[in-house]
Every structure is written in structure tokens, then in C-alpha cells.
Amino acid sequence: MVLSYQAALSILDTVANGQKIHRRDAQQQIPLQEAVGRIVASDIVSAESTPAHDTSAMDGYAIRSEATSEASERTPVRFQVRGRIAAGDDPRQVLQGLDTAEVTMSGIEPCVEIMTGAGFPEGFDACVRFEDAETVIDCDVSSTIVVTKPVPVNANRRLAGNDIRNGDVILQAGMTLQVGHLLPLSSLGIKSIAVEAKPRVAVFSTGKELLSQSYGLGRDMNGPYLTAALGEIGADVDFCGVLDDDPTSMYRHLQTVAGSGAYEVIITSGAVSKGRFDHIPDVLAQMDAEILFHGVAMRPGHPVLFALLPAGGTVDGTAKRKTAFFGLPGNPGAAAACFRFLVVPYLRALSGQTQEAPVIASLVGQVASVAQHTVSCNDKRNGTATHASSPDIFRHGVLQSTPEGMLTVQPSKDQSPAKLNPFITANCWIHLPPHGHGNPKLEAGLVECYPISAATTGFPLTSLPPT
Ligand SMILES: Nc1nc2c(c(=O)[nH]1)N[C@H]1C(S)=C(S)[C@@H](COP(=O)(O)OP(=O)(O)OC[C@H]3O[C@@H](n4cnc5c(N)ncnc54)[C@H](O)[C@@H]3O)O[C@H]1N2
Ligand code: MOO
């Protein structure tokens, strides 16, 4: 029986977690502003509460709110300005020598000019904005102002510690640093951050048709696509060229790159299915690879292969890291789907990230046909029996929000894995589970969508994971 998609994911997760411990220099400390898009390596916990002091939210006058409780147009309350505090001033120094109790007794309330962000002076509990006070005697800092409305306690005052609390977990290990995170992190004085090392990945394309364009249009699409898609998710990626359909040279090139120990993952596309020139499985056997799966119940992409290449030797007494190998199918639509739904989960697990949560959208049209997508698939590993098993199906499509605020998704009309035109407009992948017929969610027309791009920076097009 062909391996289910879920079983393939579980193999990838186990292998990634096993490989994780062998990652050399797995963490790096880098400046905050260079870390956007990188994976946070360990929890960041606040060592302080912010803001450190009470501060003013407006430019105005710091007053005692109680003094304004009876204030009205007919009974305005007078205040005398007794100082001025700018952001960065120490309010204690500004108010040195001012005995608020004494001046209050003298019949006129003291107040202090205060600027937005400035530390709140002791003895005052609210800020009245400049535009809400009338200056009756204008004399620089000893002006007199009147207030004609009661000012609530704590008006325009930011209380110490009401933003971030000491001990708050600001970011969890495995999260992708987003540009928005730089604001709270910088507010805590954090200037650099420990991030996971970028996974090092080598990409090859295969096929003589890509090397000589004497007949037809043998253009490499998977090479640029996979290289860019890997770069987008933060991998350190090298495109290593196109391998000819010759097992000897294929072996030589792959062995050289694997033996260099420079890469944690090698990805090829093509030459993995049943054809006479599909040499990847044989070359891997020659390389003593442990083939963990070859053939998954998924559409497209069922010929996909995953293996571990031997490391050979030890480092500091521990076995060297093996190299993960993905043999993606050659058809570009299949290579892209396998990348998105097998390679990305592997790399996320390797970097300690949680897996993505889908966006749930209403399927436009085709609900009935989609719900009855159970098909039979060939067992690619032994190449014999046809099993009536139901594959996971991945379809590209267009996800959009309606003016009513609904999310809808329309699968591309042509899902042929060799058709590239739909990728001009497609912005997501739809994941249809196996045994769709009878699945209540699917029959209600609700499907799981993932953005085509697996990058997690920018607008996070993923719903919150269930709590
Ligand atoms: N007898 C069978 N034939 C095929 C099966 C099968 O189960 N039994 N599976 C089909 C499926 S599904 C796919 S997908 C392909 C995958 O085959 P390979 O991985 O062996 O890929 P190739 O044969 O090398 O190429 C297939 C196709 O893709 C084009 N290609 C390959 N690399 C690239 C590239 N980098 N950029 C653009 N296009 C590429 C290649 O030119 C071929 O047209 O096998 C089916 N056959
Ligand atoms: O994996 Mo092939 O899925 O259909 O092109």
C-alpha cells in the first residue's frame, strides 16, 4: 500500500528532529535589524516592565485632577505653571524646591508644563492638554492657566508597567521575526537576537532536455523556482546546476556535493519516476542512501522520494550529520506542490518552527466534484498492484476576500502538473484531505488553503492555531 501523505509527514518530522541535534553552529546572535525573517532560536522573556515610569500621553499640563472636580465655565479653576518637563528630563530635578502642599494652601493650584513622553512628576495625577486649558497670564513658566471642565484622574497619563510586564514572553522559540516585533524588542533595549542558522540546501535540476535545447523547449523551471522559494523561506541555498541523464555523471556530482558536508539538504527535481532515464533511485542506491519513502499518496507529486545520505565518520565522538535528500518529481506543478507540502514542513521542523495553520476558505464551485475525489493510485514502490487508496490532493487556486468579508477560493481550471499558465494568477494551494467524500467540512464547501509563498514575513496569511 502506498504511503499516506500523513505518514510521509510523520517520517519527515522524525528525521528532522533527529537531524536537528547535529546542526553545527545552529544558533547565531545577530543585530535585530538584520534578523527580520529569521527564526527565533530561544524564548525572549522581558527582564523589565515598561514604561519604566509614569509618562504623559499628551503635551499639556500635569495637574492634580481632584482640583478640577467642580470646574466649569462659571467656576474655572486656576493653576500656576511651576515648571516645565520635557521627554528625557528627570521630573524630580525639575520640581526641586517646589512644595506642592504649600503652594496649594496659598490658594492657587500648581501645575507643570509637560511634554508627550515626559516623566510624570510626583504629586500630579493627570494631564490636561494645552488646547483644553486657557492661558490667562502668559509669563513663560510662571503663566497662569484656567481649566473649565473636570479632568478625570489618570487622564492622558501612561502608567508605569502597563505595556510590557517583567517576565512576559515576548517571542517564542521557533517564531519568525517580523518587522513589527522590532518595536517591543527595541523598547526593552534588545539590540541583537539569537536566531537559528539558515538551513544549507543544494538544488539540482535533471534532464538532458534542459542542457541542450535542440528539440522542443527544455527550459529549467524547477531550478529557479526551488532556489527562489528556498531563499524566500530563509534557507542558504546554492543552485548546483543541471544533471545529465547519465547515472555515472549524476552519481559523481551528487556524491561530490553530499561528500562536501556543506549541505544539510539536497533537492533534485526529475528523474525519479518510472522512465528509462529516471536514474535518481539507482544513483541513490549506489550512494548507500537509506530511502525512507519513494511514492506518496498525493496528487500531484506521487513519485516523490525522500532519503538520508550517509555521513561517514564522526565529529567529536558523535556520528556526523546525514544529508537529507528530496527527489521531487520533474513536472513543475508536482515539484512545486512537493516542495510546499513536504520540503517546507521538513525545513520548519529542522529549524524548530511549528507547522503552518491553514486559512479556511469557502470553495467557489466544484464542491461536489472536489468532495468525491477519491481515486486509486499506483503503489510506486513496488510498481505492481493498484490500490484503491485515497490521496491527499493539492490544487492551486485564487484566494480572495469578498466585500462581505468572506474568504473564498477558486481552484485554477487547469490543474495539469505541466501547465504553468495558472501560476500567473494562483496565490494559494488548496489541501483536500483523503477520503473527501463524507468529510463534513468539505461537503460544507470549506477547504484548507496555504499561500503559494511559504515565507512567513509580511502579511501573515495564516489563521491562529487552535487554542
Ligand atoms: N509510467 C509512469 N510514468 C510516469 C509516472 C508513473 O507513475 N508511471 N508518473 C508521472 C508523474 S505523476 C510525474 S510528476 C512524472 C515525474 O517524472 P520524473 O520525476 O521522473 O521527471 P522526468 O521524467 O525527468 O520529467 C518529467 C517532465 O518534467 C519536465 N521537467 C523535469 N525537470 C524539469 C525542470 N527542472 N524544469 C522544467 N521541467 C522539468 C521534463 O522535461 C518532463 O517533461 O512522471 C510521470 N510519468
Ligand atoms: O506528480 Mo505528477 O503528479 O502528476 O505530475
UniProtKB/TrEMBL annotation:
Family: In the C-terminal section; belongs to the MoeA family.
Pfam families: MoCF_biosynth (PF00994), MoeA_N (PF03453)
Gene3D superfamilies, alphabetized: MoaB/Mog-like domain, MoeA, C-terminal, domain IV, Molybdopterin biosynthesis moea protein, domain 2, Molybdopterin biosynthesis moea protein, domain 3
Species annotation: Coniochaeta pulveracea
Protein name per its UniProtKB record: molybdopterin adenylyltransferase
Function summary: Catalyzes two steps in the biosynthesis of the molybdenum cofactor. In the first step, molybdopterin is adenylated. Subsequently, molybdate is inserted into adenylated molybdopterin and AMP is released.
Matching InterPro entries: MoaB/Mog-like_dom_sf (IPR036425), MoaB/Mog_dom (IPR001453), MoeA-like (IPR038987), MoeA_C_domain_IV_sf (IPR036688), MoeA_linker/N (IPR005110), MoeA_linker/N_sf (IPR036135)
UniProt lineage: Eukaryota, Fungi, Dikarya, Ascomycota, Pezizomycotina
Keyword annotations from UniProtKB, A to Z: Magnesium, Metal-binding, Molybdenum, Molybdenum cofactor biosynthesis, Transferase
Gene Ontology biological process terms in this record: Mo-molybdopterin cofactor biosynthetic process
PANTHER family for this protein: MOLYBDOPTERIN ADENYLYLTRANSFERASE, MOLYBDOPTERIN BIOSYNTHESIS PROTEIN
Cellular component GO terms held in the UniProt record: cytosol
